[in-house]
């Protein structure tokens, strides 16, 4: 049998902070990363590059070590999901140094999107807005951890989500509005809440509502939130094979076992 050329699976990369790092975890029987991998099994590898605590400045400096330029026979990034902002939006404190100014945050996102190493892969790029914040819950935990005040504020975090929307539009990449999807669900499940006033989780409203279940520590997502996240990502993945005559198996990197072209005639005869 002739030697076969090495084949690498194309990649879906999740690049972000702890919100993507946590996507690998199984919470109440659900894992965002596992669900996405199952959806595109045998077609793509889902690669998690979630880095807890990182802001966009950290990410931009680390990017050349995280991503390699495409080479023949090597993996190519087909989809790149970028989720930063939760740490950039921290307020400057003596006990916390994660803050990145709003203008720098936007510039960093643009630099990540247009970085030569990323551009060489020509991936489909998706910018994800960071989720809403439950400042009421987070303040209690931050004070207990020794901070003089909350490390994050609802209105400031919302401004960083809006900045992601702006950068997505300016750069011509696809927006995944996680902030809106989670907040819409939280509002719908909080009886009697008036969304025209201060937001859920904002001390000015004094109402945590359903955010209590969606953001257990005020910042990181619950299984319910990850399920919602997956539901808005799922439609964007798979256009390569959806609607094809053999949709179930179309796009496989390696063909179905009985159709493998490297099986010799004797093996084929036994099938």
Automatic annotation (TrEMBL):
The keyword Hydrolase applies. It comes from the Eukaryota. InterPro entries: Iah1-like (IPR045136), SGNH_hydro (IPR013830), SGNH_hydro_sf (IPR036514). Residues 14-228 form the SGNH hydrolase-type esterase domain. GO terms for molecular function: hydrolase activity. The keyword Hydrolase applies. Keywords: Hydrolase. This is SGNH hydrolase-type esterase domain-containing protein.
